[in-house]
Amino acid sequence: MEIMVIGIIFIVVGLIFAIIGLIGFLIKAFSESFLWGIGVLIIPFVWIIYLVLFEEGRSSFVKVLISIPFFLLGLVLMEGAY
Fold first, then answer.
1. What per-residue confidence (pLDDT) applies to 34?
2. The domain containing residue 32 runs over which residues?
C-alpha cells in the first residue's frame, strides 16, 4: 500500500513538471510569434522545428524531459504494488 502511495506521488510530481514545462514552452512559442504558438499547439512535429531554430524553448522542454523518469518510476512502483 505504501509503495502505491509513493508511486502516485512520483506521478504527480512528473505531471507538475510536465505541465510547467509545456506551459512555459507554449508561452515562449507565442512570444516568438502568434503563428509559431499556433503551430506548436496544433500542428504535429512543429515543436521539433521550433526547438532547432530557437534556443528560448529548450529550457522549458528540458522540464518536460525531466518529468519522464518521474512518470516511469511512478508507474513501476504502482505496478509492483499489485
1. 95
2. 2-81
Grid cell locating 28: 515562449
Residue 29 pLDDT: 93
Look up cell 506521478; give the residue: 11
For residues 36 and 50, is the Cβ–Cβ distance under 8 A?
yes
How far, in Å, CA of 60 to CA of 7, rounded?
Answer: 24
Are 8 and 74 a contacting pair, CB within 8 Å? Answer: yes
Helix axes 2-32, 34-42, angle to 10 degrees: 140
| Lookup: cell for 33 | 510569434
Q: Please report, as a single letter, which amino acid is at residue 41.
A: L
Count: domains in the chain: 1
